[in-house]
Amino acid sequence: TSKEKDELIDRILAGRIPGRPCSLSSFVPVDDRVRMGDAIEVILELRQRGWVEKYQRTSEDLRFSINSGLETFAKRGGFEAEDVVFQAELHKVYLEITKLKAEMNPGLYNKIMKILEPLAQFAGIAIDAFIK
After folding, report:
1. Would you say 55 and 47 are in contact if contact means Cβ atoms under 8 Å apart?
2. Which of 49, 51, 79, 86 has the alpha carbon at shortest distance from 65?
3. Helices (H) and strands (E) in the chain, counts
4. Is 49 helix (H, G, I), strand (E, B) or coil?
5. Is the Cβ–Cβ distance between 40 and 60 less than 8 Å?
6. Angstrom distance (rounded) from CA 117 to CA 132
7. Which DSSP letter does residue 103 get?
8. How far apart are the first and last CA of the chain?
C-alpha cells in the first residue's frame, strides 16, 4: 500500500549515511522473503523515478544509493499524497462529466459519452469507492 511504501522510504531516509550506499537488508529482514520482495519492487519504482542510483542486486541483498529527490518526495507526502491528488483529479473529472450532462442536449451528450465512456466509467467507479 502507499502507507507501507512511505514507511519504507522513511526508514531508508532515517537510517542512511549520506554518501554511502544503502543495503535493503538494513531495513527489511532478508529471511522475510515476502517483505523483501515487496521492498525490492518499491526500490525499483523509486529507481524508475530517478531517486535511486547505483542499484546493485546480490543473491542476498540489494545495495543502492538515493538522491535528494527522494527526500523531497517524502517531505511532500510521498505515495499517500499522490493518492490523494489522484483521487481529487478523478473527483474533478466526475464532477465535470456530471455538469456536462446537465448543460448539454441529450443527443450530443450521448455522442460525447460514447467517446469518453471508458474514462467516465473508470472515474465513476473510482469516485464511488472514494466517496463511500
Report:
1. yes
2. 51
3. 5, 3
4. coil
5. no
6. 22
7. H
8. 19
- CB-based contact 24:39 (threshold 8 Å): yes
Q: How is residue 4 written as a grid cell?
A: 507501507
Other CB atoms within a 10 A radius of the CB of residue 79 amount to 20
Task: Give the model confidence (pLDDT) of 83-108 as tens digits.
Answer: 888 888 877 877 887 787 788 888 88
- What nine digits make up the cell of 129? 469507492
Give CA 58 to chain center in angstroms. Answer: 26
Q: How far apart are CA 53 and CA 17, in angstroms?
A: 15
Q: Are 2 and 79 in contact (CB under 8 A)?
A: yes
pTM score: 0.72
Grid cell, residue 39, equals: 521492498
β-pairing verdict for 22-23 and 52-57: unpaired
